[in-house]
From TrEMBL:
Coiled-coil positions: none
InterPro entries: Helicase_C-like (IPR001650), P-loop_NTPase (IPR027417)
Superkingdom to which the source organism belongs: Eukaryota
Xref: Gene3D superfamilies: P-loop containing nucleotide triphosphate hydrolases
Protein name: Helicase C-terminal domain-containing protein
Organism: Durusdinium trenchii
Domain Helicase C-terminal: 1-122
Length: 122
């Protein structure tokens, strides 16, 4: 979540992304209120590009209908148990190839019309 906040601040500080008449930068993660979660499903005004910075919940548990591109870091935080110290911690690691394919297929399935004859590019 800290990475999402940092990226949000960087984009908001950049003239290309900070103009609300051309770009809407939103975040989506577990610490937001339901009202803030709902904002990512609202269609932006005509001519405004919507950017959603999110944890991987947006790739697996939520479908945002007007998503055109998905940029994924390819990393997740997984809980790991350390037996000698009897503790667990979050460890960042790269996703598997199968998980990456799932992200591509999910994004493709929701952006392409099934009648267009296109298939996901792997």
């Amino acid at each position: 979540m800290m990475e999402i906040t940092k990226m949000h601040e960087r984009l908001r500080g950049n003239p290309l992304f900070s103009d609300p008449s051309s770009c809407l930068v939103l975040t989506l993660h577990s610490m937001l209120s339901g009202e803030d979660h709902a904002k990512v499903f609202d269609a932006p005004r005509k001519g405004v590009r919507k950017i959603v910075l999110s944890t991987n919940i947006a790739e697996t548990g939520v479908t945002i209908p007007d998503v055109v591109f998905v940029v994924d870091s390819g990393k997740v935080k997984c809980q790991r148990y350390h037996e000698p110290s009897n503790t667990s911690s979050l460890k960042e690691q790269f996703i598997s190839k199968a998980e990456a394919m799932s992200i591509v297929i999910h994004a493709w399935r929701h952006t392409c019309n099934s009648r267009d004859g296109l298939s996901p590019a792997y």
